[in-house]
């Protein structure tokens, strides 16, 4: 007796389920993957970074989004919720007008359970976004921030910051992130 083939969701079906769900799920290759809730330290870091970037971009053409903004990687038929995404210039959304298509910067705050995925497969997938120029990983333990800056389709420059006095220059959005601000009120 053979098992029945598993139903693969379309992106539209995923969005319909997601709109009614009490918890968020990411989407990849016709399947939904439940996301775990974030803890206090994670939320504080995200809040600090969003506040800093919002203040620096409100006079320009940048838009800063938190983890409720779905980002779609069309070539993979994948939908993700980065901790922070930034778009400059014209914002492009998919046909559903829900999923952002052109972030220039994506920031992920690492946890023990997401570290490998955020560094590995998720970063590989994000690189398929032609608009993505910078990818930042932030450790929950002060002080460690890693920055990847795209040079071309296959080359990224890596920079690491580990000092409380370090100031990270986000080149593609003309903003800075002082590590003291990133880790404000984080033990």
Q: Mean pLDDT across all residues, rounded? A: 93
Domain module count: 1
Give the N-to-C terminal Cα separation.
56 Å
Largest sheet descriptor: 6 strands, mixed
CATH topology (level 3) name: tt1808, chain A
Textual characterization of the structure:
This protein has 5 helices and 12 strands. The chain is globular. The chain is of the alpha+beta class and 187 residues long. It has a single domain, classed as tt1808, chain A, CATH 3.90.1570.10. It is 23% helix and 30% strand.
Q: What's the helix and strand layout?
A:
Elements: H1 11-20, E1 25-28, E2 31-34, H2 40-57, E3 62-65, E4 71-73, E5 78-80, E6 84-88, E7 105-109, H3 115-119, H4 121-126, E8 134-138, E9 145-152, E10 155-161, E11 167-170, E12 175-178, H5 179-182
Question: Can you give me a brief rundown of this structure?
Answer:
This protein has 187 residues and is an alpha+beta fold. Helices cover 23% and strands 30% of the residues.
List the defining traits of the structure above.
187 residues; alpha+beta; tt1808, chain A; 12 strands
